[in-house]
């Protein structure tokens, strides 16, 4: 396990608690033991990432669902990429939408990876585990200014 | 006032005819007046002639009297020359005068009277001359002195004056007549012109009114047309909006249905994993403390839970497929169709080749019956439609007989008709409409499938401006007829706009 990756906090923005739980479990199964912070609404995510209590310095990786009840995940992505500190943080879009235009828009805004949640659970679990393996090896820069 | 074209025609024709009649009457009147004037002019000449002739008659008679007087005075016969000449001329002159007067419309009796008086005068002259010639000068002079000649001469003068006077009166009469006629014609002309003016005015008014009506009708027609166009545009717009709404709805619903499904499937999986642990525990308990494991627990762990999980799984898998199908259909509906020339022959050959394996496996034969046209249409859509139809034809062959599938093209009421004919198991009459509905299938459910293919085919065919039709008999075979226009219908409605999912609750 990569030493610097250990310190990375995975911020999971996902409104569906079931999905969040399944993602967490499968990441663990893939051997990802990083802290996973689950935020189940866009507002909570914005408060955490851009609010007054945010802690700078710690490397962050964002797992982002686009279909949030209170705002569009794309707006959060845009804000992240416009943020001086957080713009270097990898953003992995993990969502049910597989619309071409949506995908293109996310990459244009600077998301690192766009993954469509497979409907079939086997594939879903497998995808999350593979993501976990991927997360285990990638380098994440600290978000310090 | 509203004019029908026929009424307008009748009225204008009538008015024009009236105008022409008036003009004609004026013309006739004018010709008549000219004629009258001409005859008046000749009558003036005739009057002059009568005067001249009357003057000549009087002059001749005076000549005769002068000759007589001269002879009686001088007894010189040379003085008789005027008398002799006058006597010779007078009958002719009187004849001429009579002819002229009667020709001028005068009465004959005064002429006879005049002639009589002149003859009496001449007789008196004759008598005195004869007495003088006989040498009885005194008797001759007595005749003259007797004053009868003087009286006769005065009578002749009076009678000639009468002739002249009557002629003058006739002339006056004629002049008055002419003047009257001229006046009449003038009044007639004025009246006629007024009438013509009136008629022209009427015609003009009718024409203007008719033109106005025509213009109004035209304007109304134009308004009706434009409002019709507007209505059509509005309807088309709302239809397109409704269609788009349905597409969006299907897309969003199917997307949002997937999310809970992932949970159902995921936690079923978790449950399955968990049951393994439980089963391990139960087996250990069975081995170490069998009394703890009751029949209920054993059945629950070994049969009930796995069975329940199995049903949940198969159901969620099926639901997953259905949602996938709806999603695929709605995505297909949003795809923009692009027209390009598509020659059917190579397209069908390609499909035939890709089906060869299945055809061989079924022992079936696919025959393409040329000629095939080239369509101006969306290649992918056409390929999907024909692929689906051929796929079905192979899939639902009757194992009791060798499969025969045939494709041919023909024209039908201005459209291209593509028949896919098979001798497969056929479709019962009551299912002919159903097979084109989503998730509906017909016949024994012994083949895999979700009942999506034909629904998709029909949706595509309609978007391409065509349709699909089925003729089939159960147990004998089916003919699917794809009807397509020469070219894609003009601008495909913009279905390519993806629904704005970020605005939707997840």
Automatic annotation (TrEMBL), chain A:
It holds the Pfam family Response_reg. The keyword Phosphoprotein applies. The modification 4-aspartylphosphate is found at residue 65. Keywords: Phosphoprotein. Signal peptide: none annotated. Residues 9-132 form the Response regulatory domain. Gene3D superfamilies: 3.40.50.2300. PROSITE patterns: RESPONSE_REGULATORY. This is Response regulator.
TrEMBL record, chain B:
It comes from the Bacteria. Keywords: Kinase, Membrane, Phosphoprotein, Transferase, Transmembrane, Transmembrane helix. Its EC number is 2.7.13.3. It holds the Pfam family HisKA. SMART domains: HATPase_c, HisKA. Residues 252-488 form the Histidine kinase domain. The chain crosses the membrane at residues 12-34, 184-204. It catalyses: ATP + protein L-histidine = ADP + protein N-phospho-L-histidine. This is histidine kinase. The lineage of its organism: Bacteria, Pseudomonadati, Pseudomonadota, Alphaproteobacteria, Acetobacterales.
